[in-house]
């Protein structure tokens, strides 16, 4: 069987992401970033979706998406309702998921030619460990 690597016809190709890094084209990114087909904005200062404010979404919304995908690190973390409402008021959908799922979703939508913008959050190591740590025992 002959396999052919198909290269997308856009500038930035997200190859994958997890809770600690993402691979864009051939570069490994370990800090929060924003990506669209023709834009890569590195060092997005946000690290925790629980602290996402409407103003934090302006850099994403300025890219005129029809849909925003938010990767929240190793686990899905929902932002405050005000951030979700801000997108809805602008007529833009916001999908929130862990980074691996967000990378898959973004890549599929971008590959279909949709106007999608994604933000990926990489929490500090101590923050990520706290999110993955088991809670107190039930009934204990």
Sequence-ordered SSE layout with sheet pairings:
Layout: E1 14-17, E2 22-24, E3 27-29, E4 33-36, E5 39-41, H1 58-61, E6 67-71, H2 81-89, E7 93-97, H3 99-111, E8 116-120, H4 125-132
Parallel strand pairs: 6-7, 6-8
Antiparallel strand pairs: 1-2, 2-3, 4-5, 4-8
Strand order of the largest sheet: 5-4-8-6-7
What's the alpha carbon Rg, rounded to whole Å? 16 Å
Poorly predicted residue ranges: none
Task: Note the beta-strand portion.
Answer: 15-25%
| Helical proportion, percent range | 10-25%
CATH class reads: Alpha Beta
| H/E series | EEEEEHEHEHEH
Number of helices: 4
How far apart are the termini?
57 Å
The total count of strands amounts to: 8
Count of folded domains: 1
Which structural class best describes the helix and strand composition?
A: alpha/beta
Mean pLDDT: 88
Supply the CATH architecture: 3-Layer(aba) Sandwich
CATH homologous superfamily placement: MTH938-like
Describe this entry's structure for a reader:
The chain is α/β, with parallel strands linked by helices and 140 residues long. The protein has a single domain (31-129), classed as 3-Layer(aba) Sandwich (Hypothetical Protein Mth938, Chain: A). Helix content is 24%, strand content 23%. The protein contains 4 helices and 8 strands, in the order βββββαβαβαβα. The protein has a 5-stranded mixed sheet with strand order 5-4-8-6-7, sandwiched between helices. A hairpin with a 2-residue loop joins β4 and β5. The longest helix is centred in the C-terminal third of the chain and has 13 residues, at 99-111. The protein is globular, with a radius of gyration of 16 Å. The model has no long low-confidence stretch (mean pLDDT 88).
